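Lab notes, practical 5.
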Amino acid sequence: MASIFHHNLSKDLSLILDDADDYNVIIQVGENQNTKEFRAHSVILRARSPYFKSALSENWITKKGNMIMFSKPNLSPTIFDMILKYIYTGELDLTKQSGENILGLLVASDELLLEELFNYVQDYLIDIQARWVHANFILVLHTVFKLDNCKRLQDYCLESICENPLPFFSSKTFPSIDKEILFCLLKREDLQIEEIFVWEYLIKWGIEQTPDLGSKNSDRVMWNNYNFKSLEKTLDQFIPLIRFVGISRAEFFDKVRPYKPIFPNHIYEEIEEFYYKDSLPKTMILPPRTEFTGIGKFESNIINSKLAKIIINWIDKKNAKYIRARNDPLYKLKLIYRGSRDGISSESFREKCNGRVASLVLIKVKGINKIFGGYSSIGFSSLGEDYIIRDGYLFYSSSDNFIFSFENSEDTQNMKISRVVNKYKAILDHVPDGFNFGQGSLGMDNEYLFVNNSCENYEYDINSADTIDYTIEQIESFTVNTMDNISYN
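Output from the prediction step:
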């Protein structure tokens, strides 16, 4: 077996980059007052980057004496410094870099065909710099839509906006969004916003994008036929994306009808027929978007989003069938543990799901269709110092916890919920167990689930069968957070 000594190799190559006097390439990067010369070795550049392998070929290079002269004015010195260190050492430290620099590094690594670096930076923006990405959606989207290989970050941005679109649409920068990006947003089924708002923001965007309109001529009453025709041209490809079946008659009369001149005749006639005759649209008008659930993207293999919405209603202490409104809290359920991926054991559950953070657990058991679950506003284990010891056991308090069951993955009629009644024994932190609600009401012991309300710390039994011990087929846990209303201005 070969021995590996990567650490010293990286260290020695770093010294070559910083101190060697046998370089044969001078690369000037940046422009105006922000320029810098870097010294490098063509053999290393060619070996590490397909871009440099071509760019430093005899047919392309410019020489000054024996020195290869190379210019990259579109890259800043800060970004190129990171790239050279990566090329020479395979090391990268982004912890002190601004979001703008990291995004610039993504663009540069794509241009220089550094696939490994590109994939890493894309993942870093999503996993580590998500808050910055959310606060700068316009900048990020305008950048990544120019990169064919950046689909993961594109999809992440679009999905994040669809989960909580109002801050994005109402931002000051929204009217400047590129039409290709707006088109991709409006055609999505999962855009969680009332359709009349989509229409109003589309009109606002169209006015800003149309010559002779904008802030100097935004009063529709003052428009002439030419102004309407110009707006029609701007919005021609977008109007068919509006789900008019999701707009009420009153909203249509007050907010859509005044813009009749910008509609193609055949589309407007079909919309009128829908509103006046209650006839379903036949050709051009799209059906409503997916139902507003109050949660973002939900990655469960156990239940669907309809059941997740019921659980969210329970968290908000509302009836299971409550219809969530747009001003209700928006929730993010982030998958942190899945038995089929991480192993079904108490140890793996505790490792992935420890800490004082609101959490949800879902369990599918073998042999029956039934699904069990529990919500803990304080998490499941390793919860800090706020505890009590009763009869030798360690308990944590919560008045918001509950456990529940569904008869199957589609059950919206026969579900059961049992809220905590002894808040001082809401969660038992017992090391052999993955989790334990109320000293036995619902708990995990490695691959087994026990469901028993004999301890009476929760309202009543969620188990309709005589069996109290089940074998776990699949188990998932999610952190539960309300989405921040981030400003995108």
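Observations recorded by the TA: The longest helix spans residues 195-209. The radius of gyration is 29 Å.
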